[in-house]
Specification:
mainly alpha, 2 helices, elongated
């Protein structure tokens, strides 16, 4: 228990230094006598970081590219092709062959095989 009380007093002294001794105008436990404020800790300023400007990068202009005009392509007219007229087809008309044998006439007494002949 004594250890916890000691830890509490140390924590209070770290949180508000001088209050336990009556400093800073508070009544405190010290009977109200004034105690000098704790010395301010001097914090040195961080050194200034000087950022030098980036060196200029010289970008030379791109070289001029010479594009020669495309050579002219001469298109000669197509040569005339002589087309002779196509020969007329010769049509030979052939007469239909004459029927040499007449079909037998069917009679009421004929059979199919006789008529078919």
């Amino acid at each position: 228990m004594k250890f916890l009380i000691l830890c509490t007093l140390l924590a209070a002294a770290n949180a508000a230094p001088g209050f336990l001794h009556g400093g800073y105008g508070h009544g405190g436990y010290g009977g109200g006598y004034a105690v000098a404020a704790p010395a301010q800790v001097a914090v040195a300023q961080a050194p200034a970081v000087v950022a030098a400007p980036a060196p200029a990068v010289y970008a030379a202009p791109a070289p001029q590219v010479y594009a020669a005009p495309a050579p002219a392509v001469y298109a000669a007219p197509a040569p005339a092709v002589y087309a002779a007229p196509a020969p007329a087809p010769v049509a030979i008309a052939q007469a239909a062959p004459a029927v040499a044998v007449a079909a037998p006439a069917a009679t009421s007494y004929s059979t199919f095989s006789q008529v078919r002949g």
